[in-house]
Amino acid sequence: MALAPIAEGLFEEADGAPRLIGARRKSDGRMVFPAPTGPEAANYERTPLSPDGVLWAFTIQRFRPKSPPYAGAEDEASFRPYAVGYVELPGEVIVETRIETDDFSSLRVGAPMRLTLVPFQRVGGDVLAYAFEPVA
Amino acid sequence: MTDVHIVGAGIHPFGRHDDKSGLDQGVFAVREALADAGLDWTAMQFGFGGSDAAGNADAVLPRLGLTGMQFVNVKNGCAAGGSALLSGYWAIKSGEFDLGVVVGFDKHPRGAFNPEPADWGLPDWYGDIGLMLTTQFFGTKINRYMSLHGISPTTLGRVAEKAYENGVRAPHAWRREAIGLNAIMNSRMISDPLTQFMFCSPAEGGAALILASDRKMREFGLAGPKLRGAAVRTRLNGSFEVFSPSLDVERAPSPTQLASQAAYDMAGVDPSDIDVAQLQDTESGAEIMHMAENGFCADGGQERMLAEGATRLGGSLPVNTDGGCLACGEPIGASGLRQVYENAQQLRGRAEGRQVEHARLGYSQVYGAPGLSAIVILEA
After folding, report:
1. Is B192 in Cβ contact with A62 (below 8 Å)?
2. How many angstroms away from the CA of A58 is the closest CA of chain B?
3. What per-residue confidence (pLDDT) applies to B38?
4. CB-CB neighbors (< 8 A) of A72 in chain B
5. Are B102 and B48 in contact (CB under 8 A)?
């Protein structure tokens, strides 16, 4: 069964290829992610973002974040550190993201990255989240 | 226009004080500052107070005396204390008042802050998947800076080593035991490249300053450092700040760079004129980046400066002479005023055990969420 996305309007899939959905502010063209919701959405034009980018900055999250706000289903004992950071989508925007890799030592600023959709084990059931992974 | 002077300075030691509220510590600091100036509370014409998590700052009034004075609570993120000082500065500079108090205090729960996405205008998924951590932001930011400018992990360790060394010498510091470089480097990794001992902790404390115009200072026969420059600036598009799901491709100067330039312009001095500096060191990486953002070196120059001990006591530019946030902890409302307290002690020759000889110009910078910076330049 297909997993429900972690939030509506965060990403889309066309022909099996995922895209994050950003938004361009009508007044000055500033690009943001995620696309604003509610009354603020009227000031923006939603636009799918490039799935390809380069690693701009990263760190490794070494401890299980506090809940709330973290909603991962794992406990302290089963927590596994994850990479996280920013990927620059050239000419568009720099987005914050989890980075799908176990090979932390191979991560380098400037390395090519591609968007992927991944299951996230959230308290109450799995959902579909976005992440970037190194391009082999 | 009149100049503004600090004619009294008081502090409640930072750390953990289970038997005292944040308010207790703020009141203590005000009484210390009044005693330092030799003034009575009833002489105060105004007050500005900052507290982020320990209640309303104006709760000091029933304790100190309900005199009918103007008092304004200041809430401004990590720059609450710095903003209270600026407000007091303008109150006197404008000519409306000529004697008053600024106070900051706080008391935070143990461990990292755990903010809620909605309070920051962010969607729930951002917190759900584990992106909403200040520690993560600090690790990410310095990691990029290090890769761009050739800073080594050892240099981060040296920042913390210096902080704990200085903390030993500062009576108001929380952590007053030296920690060796190896112990710092080998402590638990929190967010690469930052280890546990490279981070400050939320803490408790209070700090207060008595501000006076030239005229009032002479009238009471007082003396004290002069505020030469004071500025708060906020973030631009293209600044790299905490809890940002996206950043602009086109980069921009940081709020610290903006505030720093404004303060230097007001003071008419250059970074090379500064004798002692207190820089925001939420973690080791912040001090490294802030050395450059405040104009004390070029990007990358920190590597050599730390190796040569330039920022230690006795170095060419001592930084965080009381151990900074790393040794004192970070009670948000009090932290920026602690920096100015330390500079006031240095410029008055009262920083016993950690005195920077012949210090004439003292610089302080508090920076934090959601992307703002407050700078004060004091002259002896």
Report:
1. yes
2. 5
3. 98
4. 128-130
5. yes
Confidence of residue A1 (pLDDT cuts 50, 70, 90): low
pLDDT digits 0-9 by tens, B112-127: 667 899 999 999 999 9
Residues of B with CB below 8 A from A70's CB?
Answer: 127-130, 132
Cα dihedral sign, B59-B61-B66-B71: negative
A57: which chain B residues are within 8 Å (Cβ-Cβ)? Answer: 140-141, 143-144
Regarding beta strands B194-195 and B189-191, do their DSSP bridges make them parallel or antiparallel, or are they unpaired? antiparallel
Judge whether A71 is closer than 8 Å to chain B, CB to CB.
yes
Residue A74 predicted with pLDDT over 70: yes
pLDDT at A63 over 80: yes
Q: Which amino acid, residue B281?
A: D
Residue B54 near residue B349 (C-beta atoms within 8 A): no
In whole angstroms, what is the distance from residue B16 CA to residue B22 CA? Answer: 10
By the CB < 8 Å criterion, does A104 face chain B?
yes
pLDDT at position B77: 82
Q: How far is CA B47 from CA B44, B67, B86, in A?
A: 7, 11, 12
Mean pLDDT, chain B, whole residue set: 96
Cβ–Cβ contact A70 with B under 8 A? yes
Residue B209 sits at the vertex; the CA angle it makes with B205 and B214, to the nearest 5 degrees, is 175
CB contact under 8 A, B130 and A68: no
The amino acid present at B202, given as its one-letter code, is P
Share of chain B above pLDDT 90, in %: 93
Q: Is B261 on the interface with A (CB under 8 A)?
A: no
Question: In this predicted structure, what is the pLDDT of residue B51?
Answer: 94
Please tell me what DSSP assigns to residue B117.
G
**Is the pLDDT score of A13 beyond 70?**
yes
Q: Is the pLDDT of residue B31 over 90?
A: yes
Which positions ≥6 away from B16 have C-beta within 8 Å? B174, B203, B204
The amino acid at residue B124 is D
**Which DSSP string corresponds to B305-316?**
HHHTTTTSTTSS
- What are A68's two structure tokens? 């709330």
**A82 inside 8 A of chain B by CB:** yes
Whether the pTM exceeds 0.90: the reply is yes
- Residue B159 gets which letter from DSSP? H
8 Å CB contact of B247 and A93: yes
pLDDT tens string A85-116: 999 999 999 999 999 999 999 999 999 999 99
CA distance A60 to B190: 8
Query: In this complex, is the C-beta atom of B196 within 8 Å of any C-beta atom belonging to chain A?
Result: no
